[in-house]
Amino acid sequence: MKFHATSLTSPRCLWVVAVLAVLASTTVPGVAATKPAPATISLERIHSEPPLAGRLPRAPELSPAGGWVTYLRASEQDSEVNELWGQTLPDGQPQRLVSVSDLIGAQSVRLTEAEKMALERRRMQGRGITGYQWCGKDDRRLILPLSGDLYLVELTAAGPRSQRLTFDDKEPERDPVCDAAGQQIAYVKGGDLWVQSLDAGAATPAARRLSQGGSETRSTGLAEFIAAEEFGRQRGFWWSPDGQRILALEVDESQVPLKTRSQIFADRMAMTSQRYPGAGERNATVRALVLDVSAQSPAQVLSLPPEAEYIPRAGWFADGTPWLQWFTRDQKQLSLVEFSGPQAQARTVLVERDPAWVEVQEDLRELPTQLRSGKPALLWTSESSGRAQFWLVDRVSGERQQLSHQAEPVPRLICQREQGLVFAGATERGRGREIFELNWQGQARILQP
What we know:
Layout: E1 6-7, H1 10-24, H2 43-46, E2 58-62, E3 68-74, E4 81-88, E5 95-98, H3 100-104, H4 113-121, E6 127-128, E7 133-135, E8 141-146, E9 149-156, E10 159-164, E11 174-178, E12 184-189, E13 192-197, E14 207-209, E15 218-220, H5 225-229, E16 237-239, E17 245-252, E18 258-264, E19 269-275, E20 285-292, E21 300-302, E22 310-316, E23 322-327, E24 333-340, E25 345-353, E26 365-372, E27 375-382, E28 389-393, E29 400-402, E30 413-416, E31 420-427, E32 432-439, E33 444-446
Parallel strand pairs: 1-30, 4-6
Antiparallel strand pairs: 2-3, 3-4, 4-5, 7-8, 8-9, 9-10, 11-12, 12-13, 13-14, 15-17, 16-17, 17-20, 18-19, 20-21, 22-23, 23-24, 24-25, 26-27, 27-28, 28-29, 30-31, 31-32, 32-33
């Protein structure tokens, strides 16, 4: 269980650490508490309700303004069905926000085979509500995909209030993401990228298609198999900071070999076909596009060299410049490239090389308080010193400065503060783990509870 590393102000960064500690406990009131197991456990008890392991929270998220922590929790009636729960901070009581029946009544949840495989790649277990996200910055709105449609949930003084946003029974709306202002939502349907207003004054705001050509083998805005399964990138598009453009990856799988695999169920076995790139075989062809949300101008293709086989990460800098990280096929070189100006001119910020292997870069962040060449420095994790450590990178010159000097490799970042970084680090040659605070002078200390 983990939060995504994020850029936070000092108080909210500490909230992340505190909430992580609370949710990691198996004694959270109302979340994982169960009656003590009897001395002798029967086979029937092992497989009955409530689960012996307790109903542990999944997918915890801190709300944008830091007023809520939300998570998925198994239903009291069926431990395989997830509900959305939350509690106000600092000391609110757990409360159920949304259940499946609140949204679709007694209907059964419908999932396409593609949606099932996407959940499997996310390692998401259970049924019911399998994903959600906060929308905007005011702790008021959440977006939930369920049974192929999207729902807007507003947290009001009278309690949660839900609104169905889409009404297509044939094509599911997948991977919804709100813009930073919480005024628009983009999603993938039928292999194309769509955008829809969240204007509260419109009962059912109309959706607009931003890309064309979606098919069984071509999509815009979805993560291809290798990106999701091997690199942990579950998204295929990213909003610009001002909500006017979207950086999207167009995937063509027409040359990827078609493989047949078995699906094993409790009462039967079925065979299904899937585009699967085996070792040494053709991968999906991926292009990076910048789409104008207003649809006033055609898509802009971001130029990459032929050796850019994989795109493990992508996004936007705060000044509205899109960036990509790309790997060579042998993963011995990772390049960070930005695309600036009206013509989206490609410029390599830095290159990471290793004769054996370069890891996926998880911790790229802008650091507003650490200026280099007039721009925020970039946080980068590199093994060039012999073990993974944090580095500061000048975005203009590419010059690097090693920030951390831990005796053990530095794992992933938890969050950043004005005074420095917070991360979970190994101790005692990997036998222990503590939460550290690292200041901008490179001095680390263990955060005491």
